[in-house]
Amino acid sequence: MSQRGVWQLKRLTVNYCNWGGSSRGIRAFMETHLPAFKESNPQLEVVTEEIRGNRNERVVCVKNMTPEDVLECATKLRNSLGRKVLKLKTRHVTKHPSVQGTWTTELNL
Amino acid sequence: MATKRCFQTLARQSSIFSPNPSLQYLHRTLKPHLQTLTLTLASTSQTPKDDHIWHSLILSPNTHFAFARSFSSNRGNDTASDEDDGVGDSEDEDGEISDGEEVLTANRREYSVEEKETEAAAIGYKVIGQLERAERVFKDYEPVFAVIQIGSHQFKVSNGDCVYTERLKFCEVNDKLILNRVLMLGSKTQTMIGRPILPEAAVHAVVEEHALDAKVIIFKKKRRKNYRRTKGHRQELTKLRITDIQGIEKPDKTAPAKPEKSPPGKTEKASVKK
């Protein structure tokens, strides 16, 4: 849409996947209708990006932060694993909880 | 108390009103030495804008620090602010009186001497080894366990376990640590109990991440009293992966019987190459 002759949409990012089935429609659109759409809208910047599979992205807002704060943010992101932050069930995660055998009431040393 | 508070505000104003380089030089030279306040009672009656009087009286620039000391144990910012400019100096002094900013300055205190780091590490019962560079540190599971103490928490760990502790200050991600506070070692056949620690035992660990825990909301309410407070808190944690336990005899792991074709083939190839 345009307000007083100025187009409001400047950039269109088309994310698709080459492998997934749900991207069939968008892939067909890119082959058939997208070139015509680009030509009819020369003012619009259309970018196509292939996103294969899932992405794990963490977006941090650094609005109005000092350079030192931004460095701290970046360091924190680098130090973390990227896993979803859930409440810890236990502080000790192990696959082999017992070495000498689990204790039972019938245990005789 | 009133006289103390008066002097605090007056000292603050004087530091604002007199940004002379000579005075700032005085500040800098006198800071590390003078800790006490030697002010006569007559001076307190003077108006705050009499700068020439205050020049002689501001002999201990740490005066307003002295009052602030009651809130925090360490004033590490003295060394940091010595390096700042004169203008920055006065701004720091004004800002540090509030409680909130004192916590920030305490966190950013620099441990310049490496001995301090090792001492603090001894308190937390860890020694920083070297960083990892394409080494194979992660072994298979061995049926050996150790009881470890980190800070005030104790864990029973084995090879390949993950342990979440409070944030360990002097180590980065991918650092190798040696946890030297080992209270007990055990294997299938042997158990060694320390009194309270085993002196020749060592547990190797690698720092996996420094991250924040999930947010807990601390909600306080007093009913019918119009009192309700909500506070969010995220604890800083360190995840350690235990790689090796030393100090106890480990049972020999016999290699699984491989098909006999491959080893003779390999030896043949080796002989051919020679």
Automatic annotation (TrEMBL), chain A:
CC annotations in GO: mitochondrial large ribosomal subunit
Highest taxon listed in the record's lineage: Eukaryota
Per UniProt, residues of the Ribosomal protein/NADH dehydrogenase domain are 18-81
* Subcellular location(s) per record: Mitochondrion
Predominant localisation class: mitochondrion
SMART domains named among the record's database cross-references: L51_S25_CI-B8
GO molecular function terms listed in the Swiss-Prot or TrEMBL record: structural constituent of ribosome
Q: Which InterPro entries match?
A: Ribosomal_mL43, Ribosomal_mL43/mS25/NADH_DH, Thioredoxin-like_sf
Q: Which GO terms describe its biological process?
A: mitochondrial translation
Keyword annotations from UniProtKB, A to Z: Mitochondrion, Ribonucleoprotein, Ribosomal protein
**Which family would the database say this protein is a member of?**
Belongs to the mitochondrion-specific ribosomal protein mL43 family.
Q: What name appears for this protein in its UniProt entry?
A: Large ribosomal subunit protein mL43
The scientific name of the source species is Escallonia herrerae
Automatic annotation (TrEMBL), chain B:
The reply on keyword Cell wall biogenesis/degradation is no
Disordered: annotated span: 75-111, 240-274
What Gene Ontology terms for biological process does this UniProt record contain? Answer: translation
Q: Which UniProt keywords apply?
A: Ribonucleoprotein, Ribosomal protein, RNA-binding, rRNA-binding
Q: Does the keyword Ribosomal protein apply?
A: yes
**Stored SUPFAM superfamilies:** L21p-like
Which residues fall in a compositionally biased region of kind Acidic residues? 80-102
Gene Ontology cellular component annotations, sorted alphabetically:
cytoplasm; ribonucleoprotein complex; ribosome
One Pfam family of this protein, by short name?
Ribosomal_L21p
Q: What residue intervals traverse the membrane?
A: none
**Which Gene Ontology molecular function entries are recorded, alphabetically?**
rRNA binding; structural constituent of ribosome
Q: Which family does it belong to?
A: Belongs to the bacterial ribosomal protein bL21 family.
HAMAP family tied to this protein: Ribosomal_bL21
Which NCBIfam families does the entry mention?
L21
Q: What is this protein called?
A: Large ribosomal subunit protein bL21m
Organism equals: Escallonia herrerae
